[in-house]
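agent> Task received from the user: take the single chain below, predict its 3D structure, and emit structure tokens. No templates, no multimer pairing.
agent> Plan: (1) validate residues, (2) run structure prediction, (3) serialize to tokens, (4) report one or two observations.
agent> Step 1 OK, no nonstandard residues flagged.
tool_call: predict_structure(input=
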Amino acid sequence: MKYKVTRKQNNSSMCAVCGLDNPFGIHGRFYETHTGEVIGLFRAKEHHQSFPERVHGGIVSAMLDEVMSRVLNVEFPEEWSVTVDLRIRFKKPVPLETDLKALGRITRINRKIFETTGEIYLPDGSVAAEGWGKFFRGIPKELEAFEGSETYLEGWQVVDHREDPEEIEI
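)
tool_result: status=success, residues=170
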């Protein structure tokens, strides 16, 4: 399926998944689609490996956690979320140095909690991993993770990339 990109989401400085300045980060880029879903683009490097030439399952889980949590921002761009429950089912090995796509969507939402599902896709379109997540939603000052932190927005911005797509096919 082809997805029209409607908006690019922010990256941060040091996040393990989207942090552009993190030397060990995945450097994922995230795009909202015309369907109200979010697609993440990734390319895991050698330092993300488990078995030779395979991406570590924790890295795959982090990619899914990130893309599924970001779906909230399609409708509520000022809100953030904290993972409450995360379940991953691994279906195929994920090779290093390969362009990967993750797709996430909201399946249930209420005032303080939302649930999502998502997948990691290999270049041939097959599903390498599936995820389900439950997330607590709120603005940063309401979320315990940000209590006392004055630097949580440091580097939080849309950063143009030479390969930003107008359309993504999965």
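agent> Step 4: summary for the user.
The chain has one domain: 2-164.
agent> Done.
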